[in-house]
Design goal:
The relative contact order is 0.19. Strand 2 and strand 3 form a beta hairpin. The strands form 2 sheets. This protein has a 4-stranded antiparallel sheet, with no helix packed on it. Strands 5-6-7 form a 3-stranded antiparallel sheet, with no helix packed on it. By secondary structure, it is mostly beta strands. It is 6% helix and 60% strand.
């Protein structure tokens, strides 16, 4: 189940979004629980934060990646 997928996860708020991530996956939901983004990541996520309208910066141990939501 979903709980298994997100074991040992970090949960943080960024603006109106709820961000859940662990070492290999990330899921972003809005404050109404609607999933905005879900994906696997190549590397360990160190941080994740909003940098613009529907645009986020994902800091990995291997580098930095920008995500844009539709």
């Amino acid at each position: 189940g979903l709980g298994d997928v997100y074991k040992r996860q970090t949960i943080k708020m960024s603006g109106d979004n709820i961000i859940m991530y662990n070492s290999s996956q990330i899921c972003v939901m809005n404050n109404r629980g609607v999933q905005k983004y879900a994906g696997n990541v190549d590397g360990t996520i160190r941080d994740f934060f909003k940098i613009g309208w529907n645009k986020y910066l994902m800091v990995l141990d291997t580098g930095v990646s920008t995500i844009k939501f539709s």
